[in-house]
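Handout, section 4.2: multi-component inputs.
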Amino acid sequence: MPGETTRRRGAALEADLLDAAWAELEAVGYARLTMEGVAARARTGKQVLYRRWSNRAELVIAAMRQRTGSIADRVPDTGSLRGDVLEVLRAGAGRQRQIGPDTLHGLLAEARDVDPSFFGIMRGVLRTAVERAAERGEIPTADLPRRVLTLPADLLRHEILLSREPVTEDTLEEIVDDVFLPLVHR
Amino acid sequence: MPGETTRRRGAALEADLLDAAWAELEAVGYARLTMEGVAARARTGKQVLYRRWSNRAELVIAAMRQRTGSIADRVPDTGSLRGDVLEVLRAGAGRQRQIGPDTLHGLLAEARDVDPSFFGIMRGVLRTAVERAAERGEIPTADLPRRVLTLPADLLRHEILLSREPVTEDTLEEIVDDVFLPLVHR
DNA sequence: GCCGTAAGAGACGCAACGTCTCCTAAGGAG
DNA sequence: CTCCTTAGGAGACGTTGCGTCTCTTACGGC
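Output:
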């Protein structure tokens, strides 16, 4: 096999490393993911990993970024606030299904600086959805208390962190219909 | 020194072990707490720990239980729903201050079965508070959607898990005044 | 075609794990 | 009071993964 002496470099190698990290994550889970395991899977040495990321958490976060591009920036537009918010939550729940609660718990415990943009992304999207609903006259005002605006995202996150089971569609609807919409309609 | 040959046993020893675990937790934090460290602090061997708890998480949970008795069962009665709920949240926030987010994150990541009673305690207390408010005629009905009832506790928990800073009184008031009470009043 | 950079490979010392073994104090049974 | 079972105290042991380090060698820009 000719690939035998081929030595990967730069971006190509980095992509392979992140792929290997992701594969290892799926294979053994975050708790038992080791730098040596990832290195072995990528058929390289640990040093190559440490040259780029200084610990498990950083490596895994990088791998996740590569895999699950940014959710944000794509504001849904279903015509109703309810539909928009549900859509945002579905996107968040979907991302959770990809990542899994164990990884989230692990990162929370190990990452010194969980980049807020990692958990706080949904806020801007929700603000836009609410503003558009107000413009349509669907709700009285877009001027909500900060905590109300982040409420759907916060509750979803809470659910993800504590449930260990994938979040169901029913749960998302409860969040929207029992909590968020009643607060906004007035 | 005569204490030198005294060998502790049973419950007395167990209490010493849990004290040592708690002290170690305060001294080095959950991330760097080790079984060997706890054993050394308790002036005994690891085996004595492993005979009782099969890992860090179990040991620490036991230590916490001994230290911070049960919050529940003591339903505040301030005369107003607002006061009662705030009081419950303050108790929860206080417990957090004792324990610290790092320990919580660690347990979440390591404990296979985070006993729901550990995180879900506040629910029953809130139910009682709401029922009494309804009896007083302060609110129209005590028949709230499940998710609304657990809302204050859920939001506090979310805050605790993601903020890393102690939860402030302001935050508690936001939860109650901007989110919970508006939902209940109607 | 030369040469600096970084990949590939693995040895190293260290810290904790969880298991084990050995000895001996404690304290109940008779 | 003595015997005997139980469990505490102490530490050795093999293992795993960490993070660092060293060495050789391929790559690819100049």
